[in-house]
Amino acid sequence: MNRTEILNQIKQLSRCDLLVVGGGATGCGIALDAASRGLSVVLVEQNDFAEGTSGRSSKLVHGGVRYLEMAVKHFDRDQYQLVKEGLHERYYFLRNAPHLCHPLPLISPLYRWSQLPYVWIGLKLYDLLAGQHGLGPSGYADYQRTLEEVPLLQKEGLKGGIRYYDGQFNDSRMALSLALCAASHGALIINHMEAVELLKQGNKISGALLKDRLSGEQFALPAAAVVNATGPFSDQLRQLDDPQVHPLLAVSSGVHLVLDAGYPPPKAGLLLSETEDQRVLFLLPWQGRCLVGTTDQAAELREHPQVVEEDIDYLLRHLSQVLDPAPTRENITAVWCGLRPLVHDPRAHDSARVLRDFVIEESSSGLFTIAGGKWTSYRRMAEKLVDKVVANLNLNAAACLSKDLPVHGAQGWQPGGWQQLVTDFPAIQEVEINPFILGSRRVKSVAVDARLRVTKQ
Ligand SMILES: Cc1cc2nc3c(=O)[nH]c(=O)nc-3n(C[C@H](O)[C@H](O)[C@H](O)COP(=O)(O)OP(=O)(O)OC[C@H]3O[C@@H](n4cnc5c(N)ncnc54)[C@H](O)[C@@H]3O)c2cc1C
After folding, report:
1. Which residue of 301, 375, 380 sits with most ligand 1 atoms within 8 Å of its CB, as the best mutation to test the pocket?
2. Element (H or E) spanning 454, and its range?
């Protein structure tokens, strides 16, 4: 179905069960969860799918080593639970989307022997929390092995490293796969469609007024439930419901950069845990290049957030402490910025210490807002949200299926399957996969391009 056909179908609906606003990880995950349970679902995204935060992540499927450190340092049970759940979600994520994810070894380099017990014990605890869902055991890598895996590391003073595993995935394509999978379960999914107003009957929400950003046309869509999955924009939709409502989110920006071919991708990702402001930085192999990120600064809400010079300086300053030779601005080929939707804790002055969990709120007029969390936990977030909507509105729906639901593209996929494709469809070799992934638009056009050329054969 093309966009016009989908649009016509949406306009003909007398009502849907769920109108999901937002086509990022959260919204696409919810659309899939709800549609696979038999609910009638419409998802609207004002830009393109994963054009917001979800296409600008570090592309790690992880429990969060840093959050575990905080859990231990502050005896914080919630953080501990968050890491544990994240590690279990990591397993389902990789299992249900093997074509877009893989286990990735990472190394935390050691420049002082005194760091060894702390890092070793921390990462063993990470293994322990993952339990049977672990991706591989962590362990000590000596000087030689560490350099084999990350040849660019500063050699002076290097003792070795601790190696561990997390997952890596293609965030934009994952969001698209979730959306396509939801569509195959009957959801009507449309981009460039903005929810501009919430409709009410009495004081209860009864749907939304939608504006087609391509044509300017507006129309009303009645819905049993409207779900606000707009990430950093959640407070805007909440304010359409109630202009007096207190903000739920603090928004922080994260910048990534990509280094040029002079910095070949390492075999293992590099975790730098001793930054000047107690955050962590990653240097990751990504599409044949090095991806570096990220920063964490309080930011203004914008649809297309801009990279500021200070963030580039910050990343280069830290890279110069661990890479030899140190990269300069001339070595940067791409930069981008994403906004984290962090559930606001008025007591926290430092956004690195805001709890990275999610909240689900139902307003007095019935707007369901889901905000916060991380990509890794999209499935669990969707499950909890749909459970709540179904229970509160007494909808007729099956139990959640998503733990065992391969996403679009996973069926029949095998690790070496691309070789078979190249043999069967020689023209696919002509497809130039540009390693510079500048944003979700690029990823999608590459994917669609490749598919079209194969189909033409
Ligand atoms: C720099 C950075 C790195 C990160 N790295 C990781 C990582 O490695 N691993 C991990 O697990 N998590 C990571 N995260 C967190 C993760 O990316 C986010 O938690 C997740 O992508 C949020 O998804 P979302 O769908 O809630 O928001 P978004 O992706 O922002 O989606 C919300 C969508 O709603 C749309 N929208 C807003 N208003 C309207 C409206 N009125 N009508 C229609 N549509 C609307 C927006 O256009 C947007 O596309 C990272 C985040 C950042 C910023």
Report:
1. 375
2. helix 440-456
Q: Which atom of ligand 1 is nearest to the CA of 256?
A: 1
C-alpha 43 to ligand 1 mean position (Å): 15
360, pLDDT greater than 50? yes
CATH code that applies to domain 3-54+172-248+353-404: 3.50.50.60
Distance between Cα 352 and ligand 1 center (Å): 17
* pLDDT value of position 80: 87
Strands 218-228 and 204-212: antiparallel
Q: Where are the domains of the chain?
A: 3-54+172-248+353-404, 249-343, 419-456
Pocket of ligand 1, beta carbon within 6 A:
21-27, 44-47, 51-54, 56-60, 62, 194-195, 229-233, 237, 254, 294, 338-341, 373-376
Asked if 3-54+172-248+353-404 and 249-343 have one fold, the answer is no
pLDDT per residue over 255-311, tens digit each? 999 999 999 999 999 999 878 777 889 999 999 999 999 999 899 999 999 999 999
Give per-residue pLDDT as tens, 374-415. Answer: 999 999 999 999 999 999 999 999 999 999 999 999 988 888
pLDDT of residue 428: 64
In sign, the C-alpha dihedral spanning 63, 21, 170, 417 is positive
Per the CATH hierarchy, to which homologous superfamily does domain 249-343 belong? D-Amino Acid Oxidase, subunit A, domain 2 (3.30.9.10)
32 Cβ partners below 8 Å, 6+ apart? 178, 179, 181, 182, 185, 187, 382, 402, 405, 407
